[in-house]
Amino acid sequence: MARLATATAMAAAAASCSSSPGPAATVETFMHAMGDKNPDAACGVVSTGGRPLQGDLLAQCRVGLQKVLAEVRSEEFAALRQAKVTGASVNGDKATVRPDQITQVPAGYANTIELVRIDGRWYIDSTG
């Protein structure tokens, strides 16, 4: 019984220490999803108006990214899968990833990216 209590306490402590990925990881997720030609995963980390994309907006994102991905050269996909984000400036529930914090991406992909934290999870803010 003591072992069960100890294991339960350790699991609770581990759960309280875990957190959702930060803004840098969210941008990496988006870039890697683009490299994997996966608009569903890419759109899954995008928000607008303080809410994650849902319904028609999510569908529009997917269709839009499918069109963009159709124009991307194959060597760019490989580079996007290797994208690294080295940091972000966080101010409360908002964050910014600067172009110099995004590496190993093709020219034109390293841009300033604004993010917002919604219900404890970071999203790329499409209104930012």
Q: Let me know the largest β-sheet.
A: 6 strands, mixed
Gross CATH architecture: Roll
What share of residues are in beta strands? 15-25%
* General shape: globular
Supply the number of helical segments: 5
Low-confidence stretches: 1-18
> What is the number of independent domains?
1
Intertermini distance: 53 Å
> How does the helix and strand content classify structurally?
alpha+beta
Q: Brief description of this entry?
A:
This protein is α+β, with helices and mostly antiparallel strands.
Any chance you could write out the topology, listing elements then pairs?
Layout: H1 2-17, H2 23-35, H3 39-43, E1 46-48, E2 51-52, H4 55-71, H5 74-81, E3 84-85, E4 89-91, E5 94-97, E6 102-103, E7 113-118, E8 121-125
Helix pairs in contact: 2-5
Which terms summarize this structure?
six-stranded mixed β-sheet; disordered N terminus; about 130 residues; alpha+beta; 5 helices; 8 strands; about 45% helix; Nuclear Transport Factor 2, Chain: A
Q: What does it look like?
A:
- There is one protein chain.
- It contains 5 helices and 8 strands, in the order H-H-H-E-E-H-H-E-E-E-E-E-E.
- With 128 residues, it is an alpha+beta fold.
- The chain has a single domain (21-125), classed as Nuclear Transport Factor 2, Chain: A.
